[in-house]
Design brief:
The complex is a heterodimer of chains A (513) and B (520). Chain A contains 14 helices and 26 strands. In chain A, helix 3 links the parallel strand 3 and strand 4. Chain A is globular and about 75 Å long. Chain A starts with 5 loop residues before the first helix and ends in an 8-residue tail after the last helix. The relative contact order of chain A is 0.09. Helices cover 28% and strands 25% of the residues of chain B. A nine-stranded mixed sheet of chain B has the order 2-1-10-9-11-12-13-14-15, sandwiched between helices. A four-stranded parallel sheet of chain B has the order 4-3-5-6, with helices on both faces. Chain B has a four-stranded antiparallel sheet with strand order 16-17-19-20, with no helix packed on it. The chains are: A alpha/beta (513), B alpha/beta (520). Chains A and B meet through helix 1, helix 6 and strand 16 of A and helix 1, helix 5 and strand 15 of B.
Chain lengths: 513, 520
């Protein structure tokens, strides 16, 4: 039986399209043939320093040619990627390195300050490799590693259920958990996207977010699956991105709505030639209809689609097709064909359309579990289904709607309150730019509704004004009892609002107005 | 407990029922079944099978023309953890008996018209292990469902468990059951849906028999996409065109002979065919002149699909819609002669006789690996090992791949004849002819045929003696033993001796030269 693995996808693309541009980066270009050749050579080099099948290898890189060659080299050796988020602070990077049992750490020179703090806490790492800079006495240089096809060397047998990567969840809830994805779950997520998202083998697709994002990693594997050209962007800057779109003739762009908003706020958007863009994607959270229309104006040749997914599903659960984007504005679409979704009540019984329950998922892209965490694995996978922790419902046409995170639901005096419902009302207040609603502890009601608001620039607003706005729009128990104003909402790297942080910030003695 | 990433194909009706329960799924004449009804009925059927003793892995054979019951039996069997085994409805009674003997099914389901074909099978007991479609009462197909719950049912199966057994003719004359696993179904339906660029709103027309890989594959891909499927149980050009018009069909599967007949249908201009968007055709062997006529005549997107039963519903190669948009260049036109690029979830290479890969442009055997490649031949480990040696399925087709990855067929290593979309092996016909006492030797080869693509032609050496049979008498005898599509429509020709090589083997390509003028 053929094992569909990520290195296999590269070999396949290199056979099919040897001279097609595979990677376009700030530091050079690669055809598929070159990508394969370079990554093989790098794999031999990494083999000589002891990297072998099953090793967890932590990586800390911005997008570019190097990380793409490195990833394919590591995967071909059977190593398991542990991509690290460069924006994590304090103990988090060390936690991930330790939790993943990583023995090798490979990083880009500019992240040395992070590495210096990590190195003190991670004695199990026995090999440090730096790229793009001078190694210190304890390190090897990635560029200096010499690889050649040694006598007797054989690539390890790579099976589809072998682990390919451990993606640490962004942590909207609790400590980061390592989600293990096999080659099979990655390649099936790619197959699903290739089939149902507006993509084609000749597309030039922008890879903007670093590869520790599951959406970015899935995008990379999908590009390999189809043989697309991956145009990498090391650092996100709206204006620079638009220049790249124009210069590199990008065909597809994917961002969460918050990032799209950054781009749409560019003052002179119409000076960019966006005619090459045929396909736009959005995910992580629903996009406002207004934003959708603006995007369609800015990218007149493009169709916009949305997807819903999570780290555990390699970013693939459901997709809203371009034809439905303006019809079913707040839906996340229908499940991908290879994915099945159920909505169940607390007892695990299926709920009919129009009833809110927990979203369960099954499909060949679903993770086999959390690394070294049987408890979390057991909780998430009851009865052969992934329990997403998201609350949602379907409509009569089978479209899926995310109502909230299960953990974000507020229970006040025995009533279930879905913060999103309140957020949608508050977002219509003219002075409100962004809002997030969480439950604040309350000695009488258990929890009370609390709103955290980002005001539009240069406006003044009292919390009473916000609360009054809900008067005729929401039932009494759903109205916020308290409001705080902040400059910005805490967000995960994927753009999701970190409600955990908001809840933690709420002092237990918060007083009602 | 199953992992949440198991790929069981039996979940698809459940999902469709949830997504579009009230949408019509199957149309057969005036019969219409929604996704919701279909799902409930297949749940009941699965429970019916289990209540009557079906165990995991048991086969359910069906002998019927294209009908909604066939599709129900398919998913009913899968949901019960069984294996669906459709039989070619055109087979002669001895051929059906041979398959049943090989598959050893727990249940046989048959259309009532087909009961006579089961007459030679021992131990079939109506109402116990035989159930009849189109009949009332305790031995009816519907009685399997009676009294059973329509609640969801999950088989305890894994990716690599058997899901379907599809019989094809064997080179040796013995039937071969090609084993399809859940993985095969899942990944090939997925690949098919991608390469045919189907949409969820598509209405698919299936006139190809759904006991063969092409027909079953279309059902799989359409079901996977949540499409409406219109079943026809025979191909009549005017009726076919009328169905496209009345059901607003958007996608269809055609074998070359069907396309030719549509082009030559006198009423062609009388129908509104504007709903039809994509036509998938079996590309091997599709005569290029027919294809070019079709491209000129119809405003449809064409996709050429080349597969084998052994590659399940997932194809070997696909000639995509853009490859059919001719720009007048000789390169593009030459591509129409190819079977296209390797299929999306598969990998194709060209091997020499020692299974070494050949460079681009060199001619050798076409081999394929991928998630759509069969698990093997049922209870034939030697044949399986031979066909799947070194991890590749050896197609028996000889061809080459050009610089752009287009694959061209040149010849066939196996003595397979493909007549009107059906596989025929000369050995079957030769064996049947040689069973006549007056026949000393028989050899069958394939000849190109303007309508059927290919057709068998038989050469017979008679024993010396009196009362020798004529060709009509031999043909009548063959009709008893063989399915109609296997009959040598190129004629039965008497010759004094067969051309033999030094090893005593019949030199078939010399036979092919004997009557060339008749079939050009």
């Amino acid at each position: 039986m053929l094992h569909m693995t990520i290195p296999y996808l590269l070999e396949r693309a290199a056979r099919k399209y040897p001279d097609r541009e595979a990677v376009v980066s700030e530091t050079g270009r690669l055809t598929y043939r070159q990508w394969l050749k370079n990554s093989d050579r790098l794999a031999w080099a990494l083999h000589t320093i002891g990297v072998k099948k099953g090793d967890r290898v932590t990586t800390l890189f911005l997008n570019g040619r190097t990380v793409l060659e490195l990833y394919l080299a590591l995967l071909k050796l059977g190593a398991v990627l542990v991509p690290l988020n460069m924006r994590l602070t304090a103990e988090e990077p060390s936690h991930i390195v330790k939790n993943s049992d990583a023995s090798v750490f490979i990083y880009e020179h500019q992240f040395r300050p992070i590495v210096d703090t990590v190195r003190r806490n991670t004695p199990r790492v026995n090999q440090w490799v730096v790229s793009g800079g001078e190694p210190d006495s304890e390190e090897a240089s990635l560029e200096a590693l010499q690889g050649h096809n040694q006598e007797g060397f054989a690539w390890p047998d790579l099976l589809e259920n072998d682990a390919a990567c451990i993606m640490y969840t962004a942590g909207t809830t609790g400590k980061p958990k390592g989600v293990v994805h096999s080659h099979r779950t990655c390649t099936w997520a790619a197959a699903a996207a290739a089939a149902e998202v507006d993509l084609a083998p000749d597309y030039r697709v922008a890879l903007v977010f670093p590869l520790f994002h599951v959406a970015a990693f899935a995008l990379l594997v999908t590009n390999l699956y189809l043989g697309c050209t991956t145009v990498t962007v090391a650092k996100f800057d709206p204006a620079k991105l638009m220049e790249t779109v124009q210069r590199a003739r990008i065909n597809r762009l994917v961002f969460p709505p918050t990032v799209w908003n950054f781009i749409l706020q560019l003052p002179d958007l119409n000076r960019y030639d966006t005619s090459s863009v045929r396909s736009l994607g959005s995910g992580a959270e629903p996009m406002l209809a207004h934003t959708k229309r603006r995007l369609m104006e800015v990218f007149p040749n493009a169709k916009l689609g949305e997807t819903y997914g999570m780290t555990e599903t390699m970013a693939v659960i459901s997709t809203l097709k371009p034809s439905d984007v303006l019809e079913k504005t707040d839906s996340v679409g229908k499940p991908f064909h290879c994915v099945e979704v159920r909505i169940v009540d607390e007892q695990g019984c299926d709920l009919p359309a129009g009833h809110i329950g927990e979203i369960l998922v099954r499909g060949p892209n679903v993770t086999a579990g959390y690394y070294q965490n049987p408890q979390a694995t057991k909780e998430a996978f009851t009865d052969g289904w992934l329990h997403t922790g998201d609350l949602g419902e379907t409509d009569e046409d089978g479209f899926l709607y995310i109502r909230d995170r299960k953990k974000d639901m507020i229970i006040s005096g025995g009533e279930n309150i879905y913060p999103r419902e309140i957020e949608e009302v508050l977002a219509t207040h003219p002075k409100v730019q962004e809002v997030a609603v969480v439950g604040a502890p309350d000695p009488v009601w258990g929890q009370q509704v609390h709103a955290t608001v980002v005001l539009r620039p240069d406006v003044v607003c009292a919390q009473e004004e916000i609360i009054l706005h809900c008067r005729n729009k929401l039932a009494g128990f759903k109205r916020p009892r308290s409001v705080t104003f902040v400059a910005a909402l805490p967000r995960s790297p994927a753009g999701k609002v970190l409600k955990r942080v908001l809840r933690d910030d709420l002092a237990p003695d918060i007083s009602a107005p | 407990m199953q992992s949440p990433n198991t790929m069981l194909f039996s979940y698809v009706p459940e999902k469709n029922a949830k997504n579009c329960g009230d949408k019509v799924y199957l149309i057969e004449g005036s019969r219409r079944l929604t996704f919701g009804e279909f799902n409930r009925r297949t749940n009941q059927l699965a429970r019916g099978f289990l209540a009557r003793g079906l165990r995991l892995g048991d086969r359910v054979c069906i002998l019927n023309h294209n009908a909604v019951e066939n599709v129900q039996a398919f998913f009913g069997a899968l949901k019960a953890g069984g294996v669906f085994c459709p039989m070619n409805a055109r087979l002669a009674p001895p051929e059906v008996a041979a398959i049943v003997a090989d598959a050893e099914p727990a249940f046989v389901i048959a259309g009532h018209e087909y009961l006579p074909k089961l007459s030679e099978i021992p131990n079939l007991d109506a109402g116990k292990n035989l159930f009849v479609i189109g009949r009332e009462g305790a031995d009816s197909f519907d009685s399997l469902l009676d009294g059973h719950s329509a609640e969801r049912i999950e088989p305890d199966r894994g990716d690599d468990d058997l899901a379907a057994l599809i019989y094809t003719s064997g080179t040796t004359g013995k039937p071969k059951g090609v084993m399809w696993t859940h993985r095969n179904l899942f990944s090939s339906a997925h690949a098919s849906a991608i390469s045919r660029r189907t949409r969820s709103i598509d209405v698919a027309l299936v006139a190809a028999p759904i006991y063969q890989a092409a027909g079953v594959g279309t059902i799989l891909a359409s079901t996977f996409r949540g499409n409406t499927v219109v079943l026809l149980n025979k191909f009549d050009p005017a009726d076919y065109l009328a169905t496209i018009e009345s059901e607003r069909v958007t996608t269809a599967l055609l074998i070359p002979v069907m396309l030719l007949k549509l082009l030559e249908c006198p009423e062609l201009a009388d129908f509104d065919l504007s709903s039809l968007r994509t036509v998938c055709y079996g590309s091997a062997p599709m005569p290029v002149n027919v294809l070019k006529r079709a491209l000129a005549r119809f405003d449809w997107r064409f996709v050429g699909a080349c597969g084998a039963t052994e590659t399940s519903a997932g194809y070997i190669a696909i000639l995509g819609e853009y490859d059919h948009m001719l720009d007048g260049s000789p390169e593009m036109e030459a591509r129409l002669r190819s079977i296209g690029h390797e299929s999306i979830n598969a990998e194709v290479r060209i091997f020499d006789d020692e299974d070494r890969e050949l460079p681009t442009g060199e001619i050798g055997e076409i081999v394929i690996r991928g998630n759509n490649v069969m698990a093997g031949y049922w209870r034939q480990p030697d044949l399986t090992a031979e066909a799947l040696r070194h991890g590749w399925y050896h197609t028996g087709d000889v061809g080459y791949m050009d610089e752009q990855g287009y694959i061209f067929l040149v010849d066939r290593k196996k003595e397979l004849i493909i007549s009107g979309g059906f596989n025929v092996y000369p050995k079957e016909i030769e064996d049947a002819l040689q069973s006549h006492p007056a026949v000393l030797q028989a050899a069958v080869v394939g000849r190109t045929h303007p309508i059927w693509g290919e057709t068998p032609i038989a050469f017979v050496v008679l024993r010396p003696g009196k009362h020798l049979p004529d060709d009509q008498q031999l043909m009548a005898m063959l009709r008893e033993k063989l399915a109609d599509f296997k009959l040598p429509k190129g004629g039965i020709h008497f010759i004094p001796e067969l051309p033999m090589n030094a090893a005593g083997k019949v030199v078939k390509h010399e036979l092919k030269q004997l009557y060339p003028e008749r079939f050009v």
